[in-house]
């Protein structure tokens, strides 16, 4: 028994000795690694405490058009120009042992781990000010171990080579306070309208709480949340010996006034366009706000400076200074969807709301080309005729009635062709067409044209009573202009990161979605708004512009009680203009009703000056052009006083000659045999005639 006991004791001693040796070896290896890290950090020397770079924005020709609002570059202030109260408040809430530790607060780390384990989730952070500053100096904010190790190593290098004052100064000048304010100086000016050196204790405690969550603790977002955190910070300052409890209580009771505006707004080229670009960087490229603002990106855009300046000039010169009318403007290249110019309002500083991409307004008759494209697939042709007269339609339930009206309550009192109905914007023809095809037809086609806003299934949809965005309408008309290829509105062609590496490049490959023949027939019909040969009971809607245009255009105007539109194009450029009141107030002045057309024609003429005059070229197959009498859509004889060359989808061109103007003493021209029975669309709508 004694022998066995001695044997067990010796065995225990053996294991204990082995454990101690292994522990010493492990500790020695850890010390070697630790000393190696410190030695390597010392060899590398002081890391450059470079301020994150501004993001640069370039026009299509490479011209710099804007720079992100970099608080670090413009608002960096030395530590002595920062309120001591703000410094003490920040240290108290973010890292109370900042002046004692060497970059890592191990006691705090252990406490955070225990708190997380107890809660079963991550509820407490342990990053010191040095670690946070190291993180701010890294562009990558992904939650990977690689990034965390780099951050830790960077924190070691910072602590080894810089004083606490230098670290604190850098941290306070790079931390994000929300609303585009990076650094205490920008934040002080934004929230309080004063310099960081002038902040009171109460203001400092409130501001120090914002970085934890700008969208949650900003007093402009939630004064309640901000006030609660201010109280926590004031209590922490008292506990840490920076202020007395009585002073903290007095500061809590001090009322504060907030400004909420940057004092040095700098409006650069195309501010609405630049806002849209930043939004695309965030939503399409999924870049975070900090990377967009301070990531040192180079963003190459589609903006044409000449066309942008021309758009802004025409809007300023056309709309009377005393008018309350607002405007939304988009110019696009129909071949690839590149947005060449964008104006979202008359004054960006007064109203940064972008009416070109954000506002949803009724398009009026500018929706009709999409309706009539669908009609071409349902058997209609440019020569299809229907009666234009005041009509009351009974709807599906047999009780509800709908009575659309033409502009100025003028009607042909007889039959007109589709081509003429489009040119003079006859509403009766449009509603009859819409009801014949069924509401779902237009709704489906609107989606095909890239319009995503909700369309109401009602008869008035044919007259543009469901809202759309200006940029979507410009894109929809691009499909007509490019022969039926779907493109996407594009603002950015390429993005490079701070190292010059390409992180995005546009690859907007057009996709065929429309029948090229029908798309071209629609384009040719839309040239009719500028053709006096289509004058009838009313003049064509582009009559006031005819003497000012110097090249072929296709387009459509539109108006509702509250909205005025003009959308038109050449093969090189599509431009959409909306004008109206933000509040949907009726447009009553005659001059204001013409603003959209005036801006459009002046812009198109000036921006295309010196560029080749391009005609709309028909596809190689699928269309046939013939001379017709525009009054009745029949083949024109030599006796017809007006003959208009009109394109049709092959096989749908008219075969009957016009006999209204024949000299009966002479032989009639030979005609192909044609049945005299009424076509289907006349039978359908005889009840509504």
UniProtKB/TrEMBL annotation:
What UniProt keywords apply to this chain's record, in alphabetical order? Carboxypeptidase, Cell membrane, Cell shape, Cell wall biogenesis/degradation, Glycosyltransferase, Hydrolase, Membrane, Multifunctional enzyme, Peptidoglycan synthesis, Protease, Transferase, Transmembrane, Transmembrane helix
Listed Gene3D superfamilies = Biosynthetic peptidoglycan transglycosylase-like, DD-peptidase/beta-lactamase superfamily
- Catalytic reaction(s) noted: Preferential cleavage: (Ac)2-L-Lys-D-Ala-|-D-Ala. Also transpeptidation of peptidyl-alanyl moieties that are N-acyl substituents of D-alanine; [GlcNAc-(1->4)-Mur2Ac(oyl-L-Ala-gamma-D-Glu-L-Lys-D-Ala-D-Ala)](n)-di-trans,octa-cis-undecaprenyl diphosphate + beta-D-GlcNAc-(1->4)-Mur2Ac(oyl-L-Ala-gamma-D-Glu-L-Lys-D-Ala-D-Ala)-di-trans,octa-cis-undecaprenyl diphosphate = [GlcNAc-(1->4)-Mur2Ac(oyl-L-Ala-gamma-D-Glu-L-Lys-D-Ala-D-Ala)](n+1)-di-trans,octa-cis-undecaprenyl diphosphate + di-trans,octa-cis-undecaprenyl diphosphate + H(+)
Location within or outside the cell? Cell membrane
Q: Which portions of this protein are annotated as coiled-coil regions?
A: none
Q: Where does the Glycosyl transferase family domain lie? A: 62-237
Q: Which InterPro entries match?
A: Beta-lactam/transpept-like, Glyco_trans_51, Glycosyltr_51/Transpeptidase, Lysozyme-like_dom_sf, PBP_transglycosylase, PCN-bd_Tpept
Give TM regions. Answer: 20-41
- The chain positions of domain Penicillin-binding protein transpeptidase read 328-579
* Cited PANTHER family: BINDING PROTEIN TRANSPEPTIDASE, PUTATIVE-RELATED, PENICILLIN-BINDING PROTEIN 1B
Q: Which NCBIfam families match?
A: PBP_1a_fam (TIGR02074)
Q: Provide the protein name.
A: PBP1A family penicillin-binding protein
* Protein's organism: Neobacillus driksii
């Amino acid at each position: 028994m004694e022998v066995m006991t001695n044997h067990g004791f010796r065995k225990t001693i053996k294991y204990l000795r082995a454990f101690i040796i292994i522990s010493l070896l492990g500790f020695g290896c850890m010390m070697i690694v630790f000393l190696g890290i410190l030695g390597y950090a010392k060899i590398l020397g002081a890391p450059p405490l470079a301020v994150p770079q501004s993001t640069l924005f370039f026009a299509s020709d490479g011209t710099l058009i804007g720079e992100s609002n970099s608080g670090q570059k413009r608002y960096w202030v030395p530590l002595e120009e920062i309120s001591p109260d703000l410094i003490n408040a920040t240290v108290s809430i973010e890292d109370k042992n900042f002046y004692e530790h060497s970059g890592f607060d191990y006691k705090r780390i252990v406490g955070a781990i225990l708190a997380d384990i107890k809660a079963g989730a991550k509820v407490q952070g342990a990053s010191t000010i040095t670690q946070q500053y190291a993180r701010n100096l890294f562009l990558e904010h992904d939650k990977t171990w690689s990034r965390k190790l780099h951050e830790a190593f960077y924190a070691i290098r910072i602590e080894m080579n810089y004083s606490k004052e230098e670290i604190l100064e850098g941290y306070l000048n790079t931390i994000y306070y929300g609303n585009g304010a990076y650094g205490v100086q920008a934040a002080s000016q934004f929230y309080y309208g004063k310099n960081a050196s002038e902040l009171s204790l109460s203001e400092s405690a409130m501001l120090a709480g914002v970085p934890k969550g700008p969208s949650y603790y900003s007093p402009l977002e939630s004064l309640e949340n901000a006030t609660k955190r201010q109280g926590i910070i004031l209590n922490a300052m008292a506990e840490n010996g920076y202020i007395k409890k009585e002073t903290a209580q007095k500061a809590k009771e001090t009322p504060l006034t907030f400004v909420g505006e940057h004092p040095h707004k700098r409006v650069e080229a195309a501010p609405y366009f630049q806002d849209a670009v930043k939004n695309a960087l965030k939503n399409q490229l999924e870049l975070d706000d900090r990377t967009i603002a301070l990531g040192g990106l180079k963003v190459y855009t589609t903006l044409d400076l000449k066309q942008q300046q021309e758009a802004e000039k025409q809007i300023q010169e056309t709309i009377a200074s005393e008018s309350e009318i607002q405007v939304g403007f988009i110019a696009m290249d129909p071949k690839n969807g590149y947005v060449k110019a964008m104006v979202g309002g008359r004054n960006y500083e007064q109203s940064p709301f972008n009416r070109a991409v954000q506002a949803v307004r009724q398009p009026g008759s500018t929706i009709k080309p999409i309706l009539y494209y669908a009609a071409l697939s349902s058997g209609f042709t440019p020569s299809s005729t229907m009666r234009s007269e005041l009509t009351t339609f009974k709807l599906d339930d047999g009780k509800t009635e709908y009575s659309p009206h033409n502009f100025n309550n003028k009607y042909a009192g007889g039959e007109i062709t589709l081509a003429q109905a489009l040119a003079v914007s006859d509403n009766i023809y449009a509603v009859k067409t819409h009801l014949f095809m069924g509401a779902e037809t237009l709704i489906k086609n609107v989606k095909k044209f890239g319009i995503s806003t909700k369309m109401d299934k009602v008869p008035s949809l044919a007259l543009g009573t469901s809202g759309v965005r200006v940029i979507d309408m410009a894109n929809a008309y691009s499909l007509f202009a490019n022969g039926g290829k779907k493109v996407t509105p594009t603002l950015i062609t390429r993005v490079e990161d701070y190292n010059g590496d390409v992180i995005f490049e546009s690859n907007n490959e057009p996709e065929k979605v429309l029948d090229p023949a029908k798309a071209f027939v629609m384009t040719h019909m839309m040239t009719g708004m500028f053709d006096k040969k289509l004058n009838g009971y009313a003049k064509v809607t582009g009559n006031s512009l005819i003497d000012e245009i110097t090249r072929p255009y296709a387009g459509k105007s539109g108006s509702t009680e509250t909205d005025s539109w003009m959308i038109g194009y050449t093969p090189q450029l599509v431009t959409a203009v909306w004008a109206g009141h933000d509040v949907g107030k009726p447009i009553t002045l005659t001059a204001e009703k013409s603003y959209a057309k005036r801006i459009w024609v002046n812009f198109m003429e000036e921006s295309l000056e010196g560029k080749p005059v391009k005609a709309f070229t028909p596809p190689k197959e699928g269309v046939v052009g013939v001379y017709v009498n525009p009054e009745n859509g029949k083949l024109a004889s030599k006796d017809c006083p007006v003959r208009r060359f009109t394109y049709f989808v092959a096989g749908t061109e008219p075969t009957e000659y016009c006999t209204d103007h024949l000299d009966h003493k002479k032989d009639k021209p030979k005609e192909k045999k044609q049945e005299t029975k009424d076509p289907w669309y006349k039978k359908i709508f005889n009840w509504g005639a």
